[in-house]
Amino acid sequence: EADIYQTPRYLVIGTGKKITLECSQTMGHDKMYWYQQDPGMELHLIHYSYGVNSTEKGDLSSESTVSRIRTEHFPLTLESARPSHTSQYLCASSEGEGKGTDTQYFGPGTRLTVL
Amino acid sequence: GQSLEQPSEVTAVEGAIVQINCTYQTSGFYGLSWYQQHDGGAPTFLSYNGLDGLEETGRFSSFLSRSDSYGYLLLQELQMKDSASYFCAAPNAGNMLTFGGGTRLMVKP
């Protein structure tokens, strides 16, 4: 059973606001990821981290930023939210061992709506 | 880069068998994973094929043919709860996953 948590689950916010989406895992995983997914669509990797103080941008360009100060915590921040940021944001983690078999465990997601 | 193609939607009846195909084009190939996602839920890992052939896990099996750049997920004895989206995914050299567009499976009574 995966232990990865995201808060808030739902967020409705006005344009221009700064927001932080929280993600925490209790499995001690080194690798963590942020994906963006529109309803019924594929997952797009926007950020990932190999460990503490390591962050990289993913395949999909995003105006968000991330930090990894502690192994268990990988928050995502939008400095100025816009309606184009409306989407579901999924956080995931994996042990980081080997290729392919490095199963990713996903959190429940944050559904963000920017008005 | 990597791209994975899946049918967008498949419909089947309860108790039947359904196959969800995935074809891929990758610059380096390390294997194929499958994830299930129910509406409003998080993706969950189903299976992984690192080598050619069939991997079986209960009612679910996954197959890979590297020579054909093709894999599939086979679901047997379909149940209503199997209605979900199914994603194939392939890791790159850094073990980052690229996901296919997902196949929405609808199981009817």
Summarize the structure.
The complex is a heterodimer of chains A (115) and B (109). In chain A, 0% of the residues lie in helices and 47% in strands.
Estimated share of beta-strand residues of chain B: over 45%
Largest sheet of chain A: 7 strands, mixed
Rg of chain A: 13 Å
Gross geometry of chain A: globular
CA-based shape of chain B: globular
- N- to C-terminal separation of chain A? 35 Å
Strand content of chain A: over 45%
Beginning-to-end CA distance, first to last residue of chain B = 40 Å
Mean pLDDT of chain A: 91
Instruction: Give me the Rg of chain B, rounded.
Output: 13 Å
Oligomer description: heterodimer
Number of helices of chain A: 0
Q: Using DSSP, what is the number of strands of chain B?
A: 11
What's the pLDDT, averaged over the residues of chain B?
93
Account of the protein in words:
The complex is a heterodimer of chains A (115) and B (109). Chain A is mostly beta strands and 115 residues long. Chain A has strands at 4-7, 10-13, 19-25, 31-37, 44-51, 54-57, 65-66, 76-78, 87-94, 105-106, 110-114. Chain A has no helices and 11 strands. The radius of gyration of chain A is 13 Å and the shape is globular. The termini of chain A are far apart. The model of chain A has no long low-confidence stretch (mean pLDDT 91). Chain B has 109 residues and is mainly β. Helices cover 0% and strands 59% of the residues of chain B. Chain B has strands at residues 2-5, 9-13, 18-26, 32-37, 44-49, 53-57, 60-65, 70-75, 84-91, 97-99, 103-108. In chain B, the strands form 2 sheets. In chain B, strands 2, 4, 5, 9, 10 and 11 form a 6-stranded mixed β-sheet that branches. A 5-stranded antiparallel β-sheet of chain B has the order 1-3-8-7-6, with no helix packed on it. The mean pLDDT of chain B is 93. The interface between A and B is medium-sized, with 27 and 24 residues.
